[in-house]
Amino acid sequence: MAGTGGAGTGPGEIAQDGSAVEFYAAMPPDIASAALVHTAIRAGTPILELGAGAGRVTHPLLDFGHPVTAVDDSAAMLAHIKGARTVCSPIQDLDLPERFGCVLLMSYLVNYGDRDALLAACRRHVRPDGVVVVQREAPGWQEAAAPREWEHDGIRYRMTDVERPAPGILAATIEYRMGDRRWTHSFTSRKLGDAELPAVLEAAGLRLDRILDDAAGWFTARPI
Ligand SMILES: C[S@@+](CC[C@H](N)C(=O)[O-])C[C@H]1O[C@@H](n2cnc3c(N)ncnc32)[C@H](O)[C@@H]1O
Question: Phi-psi category of 113—alpha, beta or left, where left has phi over 0 and alpha has psi -120 to 50?
Fold first, then answer.
């Protein structure tokens, strides 16, 4: 089953998956995620970053010394990226001539996108000795998801409309508030738990390599 993407509302342009360009452009850099990726690969390894958005992770990856090719199907998102090669394309259609030591698929795209097509794009672009780094919803996240509010980095978040239309499927809306600006992002995600992970990876020509964090939200995979 393909993921159903999402829908968004709020000021400025909204990418096809529902992500708000002005929101992602205004968020602080995600240095923690970039550091996790950096420590999982060799110094200077070129990275193909899929779904790079406005460069929240791209810029710290560049600072860690990795050349980055940033892919997104939103030209408005990519316009915020400085210092990296950018490619505007749907990930599932990507067919670059080169292969990368690291392909990065983060931001839960593997949950809310068409995971088989996305992982196939990872496999097409990773070097035989390279690694695919994936961020999924951590095991247990779906089960625990419930309406709630929280604040982080001065941004106010609210999760609403939580529904479970079928086993392993979760639909919800997240509201983001920055000052007086308000966006919503509605999405439907599909669980990728430890039980199904090996078979899903194998179907894409990949095998699980290792889990990178305590919550088991991040893992690496290698070509079979
Ligand atoms: C939630 S945002 C996260 C962006 C960035 N990874 C970050 O952490 O700030 C997801 C991004 O992936 C892009 N995206 C989602 N699905 C895509 C697809 N199938 N092909 C290309 N880009 C996609 C969206 O346009 C958006 O910029």
Answer: beta
